[in-house]
Amino acid sequence: RALVMSLFFKAYLAISRRLCDAGILTPDAVPSSERSGADSFHTPVLRSAQLFERVSSEQPTHDPIGKPKVHASALKQATGEAIYTDDIPRMDGELYLGFVLSTQPRAKIIKLDASEALALPGVHGFFSAQDLTAHENEVGPVFHDEHVFAAGEVHCIGQVIGTIAADNQTLAQRAARMVRVEYEAVQPVVVTIEEAIEHKSYFPNYPIYINKGNVTQAMAEAELSYEGSCRMGGQEHFYLETHAALAVPRDSDELELFCSTQHPSEVQKLVAHVISIPSHRIVCRAKRLGGGFGDKESRGISVALPAALAAYRLRRPVRCMLDRDEDMLITGTRHPFLFKYKLGFTREGLITACDIECYNNAGWSMDLSFSVLERAMCHFENCYRIPNVRVGGWVCKTNLPSNTAFRGFGGPQGMFAGEHIIRDVARIVGRDVLDVMRLNFYKTGDYTHYNQQLEHFPIERCLKDCLKQSSFEQKRADVACFNRENRWRKRGLAVVPTKFGVAFGVMHLNQAGALINVYADGSVLLSHGGVEIGQGLNTKMIQCAARALDIPIELIHISETATDKVPNTSPTAASVGSDLNGMAVLAACEKLNKRLAPIKEHCPKGTWQEWINKAYFDRVSLSATGFYAMPNIGYHPETNPNARTYNYFTNGVGISLVEIDCLTGDHQVLSMDIVMDIGSSINPAIDIGQIEGAF
């Protein structure tokens, strides 16, 4: 109703303005401050500039590190020639998998009848929990608290109950719709965090706490105090390529999987578990992904496991690529969070104490929610030093598809709370938020509430550079002037600093492997444990190998990520892909360099091809593996107090100017300035692309 009134008023203003311009109404009939209410947004002419550090040209000609090299498959992707999972040509006898999904948020399955679907010509099988033992049916990335197929009960809409294997996609989906499922509703159905709190619907062993200092005493001594809360909703991943898998049986008990996943080793391990054969008989391959953003770290199993089971049982290739609506129904989102906090601070705005409760909405299974919560708890203070802290965390169990990893993995949600806190304090003490930020910033050498020392903390520099680059003071004056002169359109200017810890929260994942094969013609095939999701990881790995071997990047190729080349890989996630895999690539290159050293000494003026040819005839091994384990990581207050939680931190500051239409709620970002400190960039073009893409 309010919107209808607003639109009517907008039309009234627009018509009045035209009548004024035509001289029918007097010029003052519509006050000048109201006239802009008639406008609507148009896409402005886009202008942008990217600034980065240039590497010196004194480096050897082959060294590509630090140079803005083009993404290795950019041209193929731009022209549509790049091959993704579902672009693999159809195989002889191939079947397509259709999904039978739950239509109830929480219910017992009374009856499951696929006879009508199986009677259709071209339908070759129906698979459900009946086709697996209870043990085989239990899966999950860390805790096996999920099911390949719903076992007697469904916990959310979109849960997989069964699958149909048929000759083609249309038939498989039609047959899946013919499978009859009868339910008996179960109460209560819990959807929101508030409902979970009301019903005490938490996963076991929660809450957990992180403590620093004495919060109770600091609160009692604080000059001012405040209680507040903030919340952040979910977000759909919306990668361009939905979840996809192609399972191909080889020989009598081997299986090859082409899968759109950030974690091929996880898919391999769980497929082995479900079909009860060892991992060495299963190969999982991922050439490239059309985006993942975290959802393909653990949720790829929803498609890969049913496809693998059908292929293994029917001895035929089985393919599935989810439609967009299926993908959004089956998979979870970013974790919604609710924060409740109590603050103690001085009249100047210096925060002395914070007692905060963090609740995340995990959905129906644990997935990686425990780790997302821990990262949010470690990032809630963002860039601000708070001497006395108590952080409590709850993982809420609800009847939604299991929420999962999503760019930042709890970090953005935590920092969101920190930025609310700093603004609350600034508002209450009546000071400029920038002054309160500066007053509370960590300094180099300070310790976080999880006892990690900040060895280098350049947030002041980032802020100073960003304020200057964005002409902040001028913009602020312009905004104040604009808001005075326009009643129905308002502008706002936001400054947000960030601190993001780089490392996997689970210690054993901070490892990587690589394999380098050099062929007799001098060409190099590189394999590593990371997956190319479009983020340019392969390009960076080629650059690392080119520098380490001192050869042109044109000689190096990465074909795919496969579990038979590099085993036991970690997921490509947590912003550590190039750190971990790059070090593994360097370790492999160092082995090769040692073997080639005597040949280079003997023939110092030779070319790379001549050295390789000589090594081959001298029977020197031209294949090497590399491995890297991140050192001094895995902090635990009792068992490992001297280690760090994160390997290092990246910092940045963003300043955005936004205009809103108060009548309709329509809005537009007018300008954005970002300054990121990411150390010495391996490839500035790719890093800038990642920063802009993330924004």
Automatic annotation (TrEMBL):
Start and end residues of each Aldehyde oxidase/xanthine dehydrogenase a/b hammerhead domain: 79-187
Classification via SUPFAM superfamilies: CO dehydrogenase molybdoprotein N-domain-like, Molybdenum cofactor-binding domain
Keyword Nucleotidyltransferase among record annotations: no
Cofactor: FAD; Mo-molybdopterin; [2Fe-2S] cluster
Gene3D superfamilies per record: Aldehyde oxidase/xanthine dehydrogenase, a/b hammerhead, Aldehyde oxidase/xanthine dehydrogenase, molybdopterin binding domain
This protein's UniProt keywords: 2Fe-2S, FAD, Flavoprotein, Iron, Iron-sulfur, Metal-binding, Molybdenum, Oxidoreductase
Molecular-function annotations in GO: 2 iron, 2 sulfur cluster binding; iron ion binding; molybdopterin cofactor binding; oxidoreductase activity
InterPro entries documented for this protein: Ald_Oxase/Xan_DH_a/b, Ald_Oxase/Xan_DH_a/b_sf, Ald_Oxase/xanthine_DH-like, AldOxase/xan_DH_MoCoBD1, AldOxase/xan_DH_MoCoBD2, AldOxase/xan_DH_Mopterin-bd_sf, OxRdtase_Mopterin_BS
Recorded family membership: Belongs to the xanthine dehydrogenase family.
Name the UniProt record assigns to this protein: Xanthine dehydrogenase
Organism: Drosophila busckii
